[in-house]
Amino acid sequence: MNRWLSSLLATLVLIAMLQSSSPFLHRFHPLLSTKSSSFRRVKSITSLHYKNLTSTPYTADSSAAAIQRVDDEGGKNKFKVVSNFEPSGDQPKAIRELVSQLSNPSNKYTTLKGITGSGKSFVMSHTIAQLQKPALILCPTKTLAAQLCRELRSFLPHNAVELFVSYYNYYTPESFIEASNTYIAKKSSINDEIDSLRHRATRALFTRSDVVVVASVSCIYGLGLPADYLDAARDIQVGARGDIHFYKDVLNKMLYSTPEDNWGVKRGEYLANYQNNTIKVWPPYEVEPVQVEFDQATGTVSKIIRVTPTTESDEGIDLASPASFKASDLKSESLDNYYIYPARHFVTKKSRIEEACNEIEKEMGQQVQKLRHVDFNPEAAYRLEKRVTNDLLLLRETGFCSGVENYSRHLAGRAAGVPPETLLDYLKFSGSNGKGSTSSGKKEESDWLLLVDESHVTLPQLKAMYHGDRARKMSLVKNGYRLPSAFDNRPLQDSEFWERIDQAMFISATPGKFERELSPDGGVDMLIRPTNIVDPEITVRPTKTQLKDLLLEIEERATRGEKTLAMALTKRDAEDMSSYLIEHGAKATYIHSDLNTVERADALKSLQNGTIDCLVGVNLMREGIDLPQVSLVAIMSADCEGFLRSETALIQMVGRAARNVNGNAIFYADKVTPSMQRCLDETERRRYRQIEYNEVNGLKPISTTGSEIKSIFDIFREEANTESLSNSVEWSRMPKKDVSYASPKPSLDPTITELVYNLPAKPGIYKWYANKEDRFPLYIGKAKDLKKRCKNYLTGKDSRPRINKMMEGVKWVEVVITPSERDALHLEAKMINLLQPPYNVCLKDDASFPYICASTPRENQYGVLPKFERVPRKNFKTNPNFDYEYFGPYASSFEVDKILTNAENDYSLRRLAFEAKNGENKESSSVRYMENFENCKAELFELESKGYIGEGVGSAHSPIDLLFDEETNYSRDVVALAPLKKGEVLVKVLQLRKGIYRGSFDYRLTLPDSGDEEHHADAIYKALESHYHDDSKRVSDDYDHKPEFVMTQLPLDREANKIIKSLLNKGTTVRAPRKSGTNKNTDNVAMEFAIENTNAAAEQILEIMPPSMTQRGTTVKQIKERQASLQSMLNLTHVPRVIECFDVSHHAGEDAVCSRVVFKDGRPHKELYRQFNIKSFTGNDDYRSLTEVLKRRFARVNGDSEGEGDGEEAWQVPDLVLIDGGKGQLNAALKGMEEAGVGVVNAVAASNSTTNRAVNMCSIAKKNEEVYTYVEDGTRQIVNSEPDEAGVLMLREIRDESHRFAVYNMRRRRKKRMMSEN
């Protein structure tokens, strides 16, 4: 009863506050303002239970509905440090001084000068707890941020300690290199796990006041409007009106997507089950999805289920221990309401997108005019107009485009020059008094604390971010790749950042000048460690014997169970030193920035668990290292003055041995530099103070035990175990395949469906067009199987909304067949970069295919060794002191790196180079290196001369085909021919420019009556004459339509060659492919490419002939009408239900085949189709071919064992035999049947037949579609018929199908033969 009264009282008080619109509301959450549109969605405030208003411990899965949660003391949760240790050493004094300075409003900055191992994280936690302020802690790297976040969570277990770092696995920014005229597109990969942590951080800032956010410098980049993010949030309540369709729209507006395979959801996705009437949604900040169930009868929400960790004690489960986080620690919980935030931080209303597009269009017009008429750069103006127009097309249709962040100023509605909203703006929603931006947009004083960890590194990063971003975008805007508004998609300037900071504390063992000048009295010193360990003693040793000396030191410490850190000067030196140590018996590995986060953590773990004795790095300052096992830090080449050997760097590196009582440091140097001397002096000063303190207080140094090394991903998995734990809760699992989840198919044009189903199943690229006549495609892609890949676009299962939207407007597809999938990759990249299709996101840059460069120094360069390296293009190196030789190009940098790695291993190049630089016998190592280098180079030359890198050094794939090499095919047209129907051919002219396929033109020509193949060369001539007469036939204006070289499949006669040359530029060559010499391989590759694509185009034309009875659209009635017409026309005794047709095809007398197709009741029966290879002779003779084939076919009727056969049905006598051709072909077929012992009805020649079997026979000639048959006197007679008569149409369609099948098999046989010959 008392609880019910308390709940009612709390509710009444809350309602009263709402009605009075008191500013006190902001202690709860800005959403509780009556002016907020988000609050108007809350259906009933009485549904908020009192238990949700009480203070509860924070857990990994605290409900988003906790926006209403406050405690009884001042409306906030308290920071409280939990630890088994009390502050000791210099820590108590440092905490007092820091709190005193930061409690004074006049002191804006202070510095904590804490040496390595002095417990700075512990002091930071106590300072935050005593000040009771939310805090933002900046770290220089992701790994340091993750390690610090883990430590602070152990000290502040009841408070919200969140991680906010860049969510990119890798990131290459968009840029334009003016020196080489190269555009590099943005390349990135987002890590969903880290993105989830970012969402958890912003949610905590909205829902709690006891928040510590540990962030990298990425927090100063734009994050989207906090007001828009909050306004898009939604409170889902049990009993609220709305069905499954309504909440699908809600989630779509909140930028949640649907999974690709309709099986299981990932963070930021939802899945609607229409059978069970449920939606499963996984907010990016939750451990597991939330399931919302609907009552179909009432159209309301009936149930909300969420999985949470058990919280039976105040501490709940131990999230710092992965072993404790398992299914038994989870429970399913039914909620009355659930507050869900958007799936992305960037949320833009649809109405705002259209306004932004109009503003972008206006800015584009102004900038295009400036580029044309002020900067006199029409190329940049054209580029900018095309790029922005494509982006606007996608923005209006899908709300997204590649590089959409560059339009953030327009999408957010900001004025030019106004800084973007960042994480710092989200911090305004947290604070000691809940202050922040009100719903009216008015700013209030924020009350939070900034802590900058490793400030000597972090502060320069903050300052450099803006200037680096601006310099990169200057060239992009200048050259027409971006609009000027892209400048406003930027990080905060240094001054803008500090304007948003009220108080800051800098933390560093070696603070810089900036921190020292701002801090009162120089800051707070922490020289005494809680473990009483003194700084390592430093000794200086010569470099001559440094490697041998280091091996002895490692071995000595290994016997005591201690470890060594060796600091090289470069990443390559670190790798080579690691190899050298391993070869000489030491257990070692290396670590540097080229390793990913997990690999770096694994390297540190291997040192920690005793797998290795020495870890070689560059400076190891980027890692959050706690390694008390390390008793020696060896710094190689310590006298090389510079950033990595500065006073600050040396002190930081020496500090890595300050957790072990036996810690020492060795500087290998031949002289003492000023930086070394300052480091020695500072270390001696610290040691004196520390030793004195220990002696006065009678203290003894103690080595620490250290903490386990974890990567950022390990830390995340401690917080939210990614293993699916849903089986432990009670909710309905979704079936693996269920039509209720199927995405709707896009509305497609019927023509495109027919085109796709007739594509070849071969590797190549495909181009989607809005119309057949368009010059520029909408999208370009590659495929191993063109037919299969393009068919996938028709299903509507593509997870990319822009692609599904594109397919609704597609009406044409063009394909280009390539020799291999790898060649398709090259061609795709070049064509996307050239044509810039609007729906392509990647590969729009000028990145070229890499080469291997062998650089050899010329004379008088003592100590400089030759080397192999990867370069982006040929002639990249220009140093006059070196000679350069190039190998390649290669498909990817990965292939080149693999080849170089194998070469260096096979010939020991890296080991010898390292010994030549650092070993005792430098001259001997140099000589051996030079010999091995020359041998390796000779092997590369030999392998490349054979056209592949397949064995030995490379062990990789072959180089890119000469087809796509810029020098080989700089300006070439390749002309090929393929037969269509009888007497008709297709001539294709393919244009190759600078190694890129620019386009092709098709010409359908009719041959004279007297033959086929002998007129093919004449057909090529006529096609070229027409092609070059019309100079308007070009794909683009940026290249010459007329090439420098024309290569034809068949040689032209002298007169035709002369005429074609007269139509081209002076000096143009016109010839057939070379059969020998240096150009043989190049010509063959290009011609095969042309022939393959010409054949594919011909097959597609044959497949999509005008509608015929071979298609499913022909009715039974129409077929019967045609059969009756044919019976009457040929005077047949019965209806011709089964018809066989024969046709011969060959290529210049080679690869001859004859086809047989079978139609039953007007339908093709492809299982009865047969291919006959001509066996009795070679050459160009259709008559002999028909005689041979008809004999072999009908010999099977009489049971002749020489006849082909694979079943009774395949060889039954048909009702009618049709021959493709005229009188000559009919005579030849009759001869073959006579030899097989089968007669022809009503034919005199059949009277000598040895069997009673007889068959009706006729032929149809191409000219005028004339039909021939026999009469009683043995003569041949033209049937009195019209070409469009129903019976003739039936014969024509069967004849065309037989011709198609014959051509197809001839091409297949020819390709097989050529591959065998090659």
Automatic annotation (TrEMBL):
Q: Which Gene3D superfamilies match?
A: GIY-YIG endonuclease, P-loop containing nucleotide triphosphate hydrolases, UvrC, RNAse H endonuclease domain
Gene Ontology MF, one: excinuclease ABC activity
Which part of the chain is the UvrC family homology region profile domain?
1108-1229
> Biological process GO annotation list?
nucleotide-excision repair
- The chain positions of domain GIY-YIG read 761-841
- Residue ranges of domain Helicase C-terminal in the record: 546-699
> What InterPro entries does the entry give?
GIY-YIG_endonuc, GIY-YIG_endonuc_sf, GIY-YIG_UvrC_Cho, Helicase/UvrB_N, Helicase_ATP-bd, Helicase_C-like, P-loop_NTPase, UvrB
| One of the record's GO cellular component terms | excinuclease repair complex
- Please list the residue ranges annotated as the Helicase ATP-binding domain: 101-227
Extract the Pfam families matched here.
GIY-YIG (PF01541), Helicase_C (PF00271), ResIII (PF04851), UvrB (PF12344), UvrC_RNaseH_dom (PF08459)
> Which residue positions does the secretion signal occupy?
1-20
Q: Which UniProt keywords apply?
A: DNA damage, DNA excision, DNA repair, Excision nuclease, Signal
Protein name in the entry: Excinuclease ABC subunit B
